[in-house]
Structures are given as structure tokens and as C-alpha cells.
Design brief:
By secondary structure, the chain is of the alpha+beta class. It has helices at residues 2-15, 74-86, 119-136; strands at 18-27, 43-48, 59-62, 68-71, 89-94, 108-117, 141-142, 146-147. β3 and β4 form a beta hairpin.
């Protein structure tokens, strides 16, 4: 009975949730890959990291073992930090092998971030991300805002 109740509640919650996908990367994998292996297709989780010494907006990316695999890039961290604090949740699916672009960012993992939350806020966020992407040539791939698949 309890299991059915949890499943039904989660299904009702998802009906009111929307999602937005943003293809980018997770940075800093070079500092963590000895302790945290990541596989293509693996779902990672984003969390606030308020005690980070380098940025008050840091968002850490962890695997299912709760091991750190990297951080959200600085150009996204303030936006993601606010989103996690006030509006929803963020997952990241690893979509390729680690790489180094040679710009001082170390090893990066290509990921597809999935932001889940309120439709109105996600639409506002999408517009902000599109403008930032255009102005700065980040080459992020952005989806439209859509209802969560149940």
C-alpha cells in the first residue's frame, strides 16, 4: 500500500513538472576521476556547494555513490545555484568521453543537464540562457520547455 501511494504521489507531482535540457559540460573532472569513474549514460546529480572556497555560487556534480565528479561551469553556476535554491532540481547525464579543450579548465565531461521545475520559471530561464548563449558564443544546445515524461 505504501509503495502504491508513493508511486501515485510521484506521478501526480510529475504531471505538474516541466523540464528543460541544456547540453554543456562539467568541469574539474581531473581533480576527481581517480575516486569517481563516470560512464556514458550515467545520471549525475547537481547540488549546491555553499562552502566552496572559490565561488559562493558553486554547484557540485556527483555520481550515485555521492562522489564528486566535477562542478557546473562558472558561466552557468549562478543561474543553476538560484534554480536549485528556489525552483527545482537538476540532473546531468554523461553523454561522452572526458576531454580537455586546453583553456585552463582541465578535464571536462560532456553532459546534458536536465532542469526540472515550474513551467513559467523554466520559460523565463530558457530566454535568459538563449540570450547568454548568443552574446557569448558558448554553443550550448538548449531544448524547449516541455512537460516531464511520466
Amino acid at each position: 500500500m505504501i509503495w502504491v501511494s508513493v508511486v501515485l504521489r510521484r506521478t501526480v507531482e510529475m504531471v505538474n513538472e516541466y523540464e528543460l535540457y541544456l547540453e554543456a559540460s562539467t568541469r574539474g573532472y581531473h581533480a576527481y576521476f581517480k575516486d569517481a569513474t563516470v560512464y556514458i549514460g550515467e545520471i549525475l546529480f547537481c547540488e549546491l556547494e555553499p562552502d566552496n572556497q572559490h565561488s559562493k555560487y558553486a554547484v557540485v556534480v556527483k555520481n550515485e555513490d555521492d562522489s564528486i565528479v566535477g562542478h557546473v561551469p562558472a558561466e552557468l553556476s549562478k543561474i543553476f545555484n538560484k534554480f536549485l535554491s528556489e525552483y527545482g532540481k537538476i540532473e546531468a547525464e554523461c553523454i561522452g568521453n572526458r576531454f580537455n579543450k586546453g583553456r585552463g579548465n582541465g578535464l571536462e565531461l560532456p553532459v546534458d543537464y536536465r532542469l526540472v521545475g515550474n513551467a513559467r520559471y523554466l520559460k523565463k530561464l530558457l530566454k535568459e540562457l538563449q540570450e547568454k548563449n548568443t552574446e557569448s558564443n558558448y554553443n550550448w544546445k538548449l531544448s524547449t520547455v516541455q512537460k516531464c515524461r511520466v
